[in-house]
Amino acid sequence: MKLICLLLSCVVLLSFGSCNQRRKQQDKMAGKEASEAVSVIKYAKGFTVRDSARYKLVDITDPSGESDVVYKYALLERGSDRKGIPSGYEIIETPVRSVICMTTLQISNFIKLNATDRIVGMTSTRFLFNEQLRKQLKEQKTKRVGKEGEFDTEMILALDPDIILVSPFKRGGYDAVRSLDIPLISFLGYKESSPLGQAEWIKFTAMLLGLEEQSIKQFEAIEKRYLELKALTASVRERPTVLSGELHSGNWYVVGGNSYLAQLFRDAGADYFMKNDDESGGFYLDFETVYAQGAHADYWRMLNNYDGAFSYEALKQSDARYADFRAFKEKKLVYCNLKQKPFYENTPVEPEVVLADLIRIFHPGLLSEHTPVYYDLLD
User: Fold this and answer.
1) Which domain holds residue 271?
2) pTM of the predicted structure, to 2 decimals
3) I want to staple 67 with a disulfide (CB 3.0 to 4.6 A). Which of 14, 62, 105, 271 is the partner?
4) Which residues of the chain have pLDDT under 70?
């Protein structure tokens, strides 16, 4: 009898142990799906990704740190079970089939991914260069939806996009479209402080579109070339100083020394004239302050919209004081005419091309074979 009781006890213990082991395994698997491995995002500071077998959890924050708002999205394969997705995450079914883009910087990602056919609506087309998008507009496959503060809500409803990509901190706001029951996705790549960080947002766009593997390969090629070019200037002894911008309505817009532009100049073997400022964003200065800090800069970088061929004489006519800058006197204006080149349309995902342009200008002996694409030294 004792032997039978002993055997029964062993069976119970074994059964309990087996159940307990299964429960632990189930808990482990459940925990794995909830906590998932974190995707490797190397340069972008504005988004993180956690992967599970069924969905991706994406947290988007302001890369500049100026806002502490967190935008949470769960990217779920279309038609999949929504069970287990943490609360607080807006569910976005992927791949996204139709998108409205609110900025040219967003459009650059679609162009790079060869996915412009997903864009059904956009805002300004004033300086649109992309032939495929121009064709889509002509054929009414993509439509203009107005501009910030003046959106055509009836048009947006008629387009019925899966998502709208927005820049939530832009002036004008999106109050008119918040009530349309269309997911608004915050896209903050423009606030990244490094060129590769901005370019890495192509991975997020690709996650929405179901093109992740393609974007990883494309970004690896961008990164590889950028780092190769950056290495060329690592040991340069003479680093020219670069002024940037111009007056608009009496104010000069500049960015700080921890900005995207300052990093680009550093990587090109030059020093931004505001390099000692610790801001990453932009702000306005008066002419006298800019002159005091930038009058003796070796180069002057400028983007503008000019009809025809821009010249030093045209610059002087806009403000005679410009002629007092050293870069003006020595004819070292690093220039891009936005009416002639697709700068904002392409450069967010082509930082390596922009870097090559700048190295070719600042240190021509290092990259003499490069043909400028966006920036030229104005004759």
Assistant:
1) 235-377
2) 0.88
3) 62
4) 1-38, 170-173
